[in-house]
Specification:
Order of helices and strands: EEHEHEHEHEE
Distance between the termini: 28 Å
Largest sheet: 7 strands, mixed
Shape: globular
Radius of gyration: 17 Å
Number of helices: 4
Strand order of the largest sheet: 1-7-6-2-5-3-4
Length: about 260
């Protein structure tokens, strides 16, 4: 796979974005083919306490809700029998709190990696629902001029670069074993899209990366050989937050990350 990142990638090698994936990547990340098998589970955090429906982005002070803590426990239960030797999370509270039960269940120190953080967004701190919030103001429409970059936030190619580097370091830290990285919906989806050679611009309602889900990357040496997706807490996720669900007016958390 070329190290040059394009916002117009080809179709995915592992199937449609809105269907389950458990295939093999046709082309490797640069690096050796030979080497031990290492698994990197990238977890999206659990539900956040956000009664005002704010697009919280990189803001501090947003913690897991009671339901979100149950989701984090469910992820830890799901991974309890796995060979996890390294745990790392985004610096934001919701990611740290999701990672704690996993790290604790394996007796690991929880590390922090700033590269796993949420994508920057100019609408951060505003409400961002359907038919209400920031999009009602014409002054904000200038931020919507280029969905391919995107014009309202951190460039997709920059998200790919930092997430690839974070995953590579987690892979190396857990070489021959398994690692857990806790991050956020958009950067997880974007790096997966890159690896699966899918275009980076997309409809956010179609992201297959629900709360407390696992996007799992398996490597042989430095070569990525497969991508898989699981939802151990699916029964706990509100229906309007599942991939493909129709947005609910005033329910800005549907696009929370």
């Amino acid at each position: 796979m070329s190290e040059h990142l394009s916002e117009e990638a080809n179709e995915p090698v592992n199937g449609r974005a809105d269907g389950p994936v458990n295939g093999r990547a046709d082309e490797p990340v640069n690096g050796s083919v030979n080497g031990p098998t290492t698994v990197v589970h990238v977890v999206r955090h659990g539900e956040v306490e956000n009664p005002d429906g704010i697009l919280y982005g990189r803001r501090s002070g947003y913690h897991l809700s009671e339901l979100g803590r149950r989701m984090a426990d469910r992820v830890a239960e799901h991974l309890a029998g796995r060979d996890i030797t390294y745990a790392v999370a985004s610096p934001l509270e919701r990611a740290q709190e999701t990672a704690v039960p996993v790290a604790a269940s394996h007796g690991l120190t929880l590390h922090t990696d700033d590269r796993l953080i949420e994508a920057a967004n100019v609408f951060e701190g505003k409400t961002f629902g359907v038919g209400d919030g920031a999009l009602r103001s014409p002054a904000n429409w200038r931020h919507l001029t280029n969905p391919f970059r995107p014009s309202w936030g951190e460039a997709y190619v920059d998200q790919v670069a930092r997430m690839k580097a974070a995953l590579a370091d987690a892979r190396d830290a857990a070489l021959g074993h398994e690692a857990v990285c806790v991050s956020h919906q958009l950067p997880i989806w974007i790096v997966r899209s890159h690896f699966e050679r899918r275009r980076l611009w997309h409809d956010p309602r179609r992201r297959q990366c629900t709360l407390a889900s696992l996007t799992t990357f398996t490597y042989e040496g430095e070569k990525l050989i497969s991508v898989a997706y699981t939802e151990p807490a699916r029964d706990l996720v509100p229906a309007h937050l599942l991939a493909g669900a129709k947005p609910v007016k005033g329910a800005s958390k549907a696009f929370g990350a």
